Amino acid sequence: MRLLHVVPTYLPAVRYGGPIRSVHALCRGLAGEGHDVHVFTTSVDGPSDSDVPLLETVDLEGVKVTYFPSRNLRRLYWSPAMGKALAATVAGFDLVHLHAIYLWPIWAGARAARRHGVPYVMSPRGMLVPELIRRKNRWVKTAWIELIERGNLERAAAIHVTSSVEAEHVASFGWPLRRLAMIPHGVDDPPAPSAATPAADIADAVAAGPVVLALGRISWEKGLDRLVAALPEAPQARVVLAGGDADGQAARLAAQARELGVADRVAIVARHVDGVDKEALFAAAQLFAMTSLSENFGLAAFEALRRGVPVLATSGVGMAEVVRDTGAGRVVDATPTAIAAALREMLADPQRCRMMGEAGRARVIGSYSWPAIARRMAALYASLLGGKSAAAAA
Q1: DSSP string for residues in 312-369
Q2: Among 160, 291, 295, 301, which Cα is nearest to 234's?
Q3: Fewer CB within 10 Å, N- or C-terminus of the chain?
Q4: Looking at residue 346, which CATH number applies to its domain?
C-alpha cells in the first residue's frame, strides 16, 4: 500500500511528547512491512523550527518525510505549502492517516482526501476527552469540533483509538461514526547498555536511591499535583518528575512541594530526557507513577513495564486496563489519599514490586512490539480500501 500520514509535528520535535515518537514508530513499522510510507508535517518545534530541509523528501528509517514551513498562525500549524502539496499528491495514495485534531493540517488532509476519493483514518491522540475540553479552551474547542472536526470524524473511514478508555471518550459524543478501531501503541525495546554517564541533574535526582518516577511532559493534564499531594501520607516515597516543562508547571509543582513540606523528596528535571539519562531514571525507579487526568494510552508507562518497572496508574489512564489485567502494578482512584495508600503498599514490598514488573515486562514483549502493531494497522487499512467509494461520496 502507498500510505500518507499527516501530522502537525514530527521528529526531531520531541518536545511534544509521546505522540511524536509513536507516530514515527508506527510509520517505521509499516515501512518495515514493505509499505510505501510518506509523512507530511511541519518544521514547527515550539517557538523555533527543527533543523530539517524544507519541501524535500527526507528518509528517516525507511519513512519518506516532507517538512513544510509554517510561518503564520503557527499554533494551528497553518502551512499553505502543505495545502498545495496535499491537493497535488493525495490522489496518488491508497489511504491517508491523520494524527491529532483541532489543527489545520488535519482539516486540510481530510478535505483533500475526500475531494480525491481517498479513504482516511483519524487518530485523535487523546484530544477528545470531555473533561480536558471543559477545563482548557472550552469554547474554542467546542466551536472547532462543531464547525470542522465533527464532519471530519463522521466522514472518516475509521477512527483509530489506542485504548478502551479513549474509545469510551470518543463514543460519549454520540456521533454516527463509520468505524471505531482500537489498536494500541507499540513499545520499542530498550537500547543496549551504555558506558556513558548520565547528566549531572539526572545523577543528582537519583543519588539517594530508588525513586518513584513520573516521566513525560510536565503539564497540568498529567495530574502530577496529585502525586505531590500524596507525599505527606507516603513518607517513604521519593519522587522524580522529569520531562519538558509546559507553561511553567514545574515551578508550580516545586512551590506545592515546599508548601506541603516535601520538597526534600521531590526532584524535578524540567527538560526533555532521552538516551542514557532516560535509562538512568528507569534503572533507579522502584515504580512508575502515571496519575494523569486522562491519558489515551500512556507510552512512558509501557516503556517502564518493558524494563520491568511496575506501574501505579489512576483509572483515567488508558493503559490502566493492562496494569489491572496483568497484575503489573496498581490502579487507583485519582485522589491523593488513594495514590498515597498505593505508594505505601508497593514501596513496603520490593519483592512483590519486582514480580509485578516482570509480569508487565512479559505482557509488553508478547503483545506490544511495533512490528506486531504495524501489522494490525496495515490489516485495518486493507479492510477499509473496499470502502473507498463510500468515503468519496461523503
Answers
A1: EEETTBTTHHHHHHHTSEEEE-SSHHHHHHHHHHHHT-HHHHHHHHHHHHHHHHHH--
A2: 291
A3: C
A4: 3.40.50.2000
Cα–Cα distance, 394 to 375 (Å, whole number)? 28
When pLDDT is averaged across residues 77-87 and rounded to a whole number, the result is: 97
Whether residue 232 sits in one domain with residue 378: no
Looking at residue 146, what DSSP letter applies? Answer: I
Q: Which amino acid is at 152?
A: N
Unique residue bearing C-alpha cell 516515597: 237
**pLDDT bracket for residue 389 (50, 70, 90):** very low
Based on the fold, state whether residues 66 and 29 are members of the same structural domain. Answer: yes
Instruction: Name the packing angle between helices 18-32 and 370-384 (round to 10°).
Output: 70
Q: Which of 51-60, 124-133, 224-233 has the lowest mean pLDDT?
A: 124-133
Give the sign of the dihedral formed by CA 388, CA 383, CA 103, CA 25.
Answer: negative
| Full domain range(s) for residue 275 | 200-367
Question: What's the burial of 130, exposed, middle or buried (CB within 10 Å: 0-12/13-18/19+)?
Answer: exposed
Q: Quick one: cell of 32? A: 518495515
* Same domain as 323, residue 295: yes
Residues 97 and 207 in one domain: no
Confidence of residue 379 (pLDDT cuts 50, 70, 90): very high
Residues 263 and 160 in one domain: no
pLDDT in tens, 182-206: 998 888 889 888 889 999 999 999 9
Helix (H) or strand (E) holding 304: helix 299-306
CA distances from 134 to 147, 177, 300 (A): 17, 22, 25
Identify whether residues 16 and 132 lie together within a single domain: yes
Q: Say which residue the cell 512551590 belongs to.
A: 255
With respect to residue 194, please indicate whether it lies within any of the assigned structural domains: no
Write the pLDDT tens digit of every residue in 213-271: 999 889 888 889 999 999 999 999 999 999 999 778 999 999 999 999 999 999 999 99
SS3 state at 160: strand
Tell me the Ramachandran region of residue 101: left when phi exceeds 0, alpha when psi lies from -120 to 50, beta otherwise: beta
Within a domain: 267: yes
